[in-house]
Write a structure and sequence with these properties.
3 domains, five-stranded antiparallel sheet, three-stranded antiparallel sheet, alpha+beta, Enolase-like, domain 1
């Protein structure tokens, strides 16, 4: 929606309407707009401008009310051109910083804390992907036996990053076999860059398949699967899903069912968040912009977080489209910076 289509008065009224709607969640009438916009124009002029905005698809009129509400397109114009981002209050910044500093050094614990803090300070659902470095030194690998021929591979990278992957294998393995395989792999590959490990695994299989015993072959085979991008135990952490129950527009049984299904399925949310790793700064998806139908009534505000100038993950919040963007944007932005600092090696 080009800004040039809207004159100053139309933009002022749209901003006033969106701010009031975000605050109250109710359609906004012409009388309220006249009073709160402080524009010296007649009620008739305001009604004409609102009719123009409606024709442009920026506002709509619910059947049960004479007032209007912003559409997703109207919210997009507001976010892109009209929102006044407020500096983050020192008290909130300190709460986030202190919460992370008191968590300890575990990357998993820091991610969990960050999602809880995002949820607490925004009263929305907070989501944080676990850190994934393109580069990093492998420190250790362990295998734990699960049911149905499944094994949990625990990969320790650098000082404290832990990646968990579930492997579906052709047969069951004893604890002794898994321990021997893990010890062999740690001995052979500890200290190697993670990005090089898989190619080295393939190389070892081609060069020494005949001379390897069964334990070594099994170890290499399991490691290959562990270093492929596949099903993971904890791709992201989410907190505060029940906060969404507080918003009338999301509280219908059908809407909540679809939302919680997409949260539990994880794949769609993870795909959306993965897109944000390539973006700089805060990204905002309003309504259908996310591309996932269950999120059509939601907005997603995200920011990537970095360690040593490398983007290793994304965090953000999910809430109704009428969220307080001017407050949420700096919270997401600052939390991403603070999480990156907390994860940085001493």
């Amino acid at each position: 929606m080009p800004d040039t289509v809207l004159n100053e008065r139309a933009l002022k009224l749209l901003k006033t309407l969106v701010q009031r709607y975000i605050r109250d969640g109710q359609p906004v009438g012409s009388r309220t707009l006249s009073r709160e916009s402080a524009l010296e124009v007649s009620p008739a002029t305001i009604r004409n401008i609102m009719a123009d905005l409606e024709e442009l698809g920026l506002v709509s009129s619910p059947h049960t009310s004479a007032g209007r509400v912003p559409t997703a397109a109207g919210l997009r114009v507001f976010v892109d051109t009209l929102v006044t981002v407020k500096p983050l209050q020192k008290k909130i910044a300190a709460e986030i910083a202190n919460g992370l500093s008191e968590t300890g050094e575990s990357s998993q614990a820091l991610v969990t804390t960050a999602s809880k803090l995002l949820s607490q300070v925004t009263h929305l659902a907070g989501v944080v992907t676990v850190p994934r470095r393109t580069h990093g030194q492998l420190r250790q690998i362990e295998f734990l036996q699960l049911s149905d021929n499944r094994v949990l591979a625990i990969i320790v990278v650098n000082a404290r990053e832990v990646q968990n992957r579930i492997l579906k294998l052709d047969r069951s393995y004893t604890e002794s076999e898994l321990r021997q395989a893990a010890n062999y792999l740690t001995d052979q590959f500890a200290g190697n860059d993670v990005s090089d490990v898989r190619s080295k695994l393939l190389g070892e299989l081609k060069q020494a398949r005949e001379s390897m015993n069964e334990m070594m072959l099994n170890a290499i085979s399991m490691a290959q699967r562990a270093f492929e991008k596949g099903e993971t135990e904890d791709d992201f952490v989410m907190a505060g899903k029940t906060n969404l129950l507080d918003f009338a527009e999301l509280s219908s049984v059908d809407t909540l069912r679809q939302l919680f299904e997409v949260f539990n399925r994880k794949r769609d949310i993870l795909h959306l968040l993965d897109q944000c790793t390539k973006a700089e700064g805060v990204q905002i998806f309003i309504g259908k912009e996310s591309g996932y139908e269950p999120l059509d009534e939601c907005s997603v505000v995200t920011a990537p977080y970095t360690v040593d100038d490398e983007v290793v993950g994304v965090l953000g919040v999910i809430g109704p489209t009428r969220m307080a963007y001017e407050r949420v944007i700096p919270i997401v932005d600052v939390t991403a910076k603070l999480l990156g600092q907390a994860l940085k090696m001493p």
